[in-house]
Amino acid sequence: MARTVFCEYLKQDAEGLDFQLYPGDIGTRIYNGISKQAWAEWQKKQVMLINEHKLSMLKVEDRQLLEDAMVGFLFEGKEVTVEGYVPKA
């Protein structure tokens, strides 16, 4: 049976993640308050950010930039903007 969480991103009850996908306190917060749907939305944004900014997960600064964007997107309602990207209408 699927877990239900109150998704902080969608602002409604939704299917929760099956397990903690991210380490530490932020990971616990995501597991407890972010739905599968919201996580999938973030994954798309993350790929765009990594590609646009040519981020390397080997660099601490790049991982921090991504983490800050993730927290802003999932919990603070901040949109991820990628220069030159126009969403399909």
UniProtKB/TrEMBL annotation:
The keyword Kinase does not apply. One of its GO terms (molecular function) is iron ion binding. One of its GO terms (biological process) is cellular response to oxidative stress. GO terms for cellular component: cytosol. Keywords: Iron. It comes from the Bacteria. The keyword Iron applies. Belongs to the Fe(2+)-trafficking protein family. HAMAP family: Fe_traffic_YggX. Could be a mediator in iron transactions between iron acquisition and iron-requiring processes, such as synthesis and/or repair of Fe-S clusters in biosynthetic enzymes. Necessary to maintain high levels of aconitase under oxidative stress. NCBIfam families: PRK05408.1. This is Probable Fe(2+)-trafficking protein. It comes from Psychrosphaera saromensis.
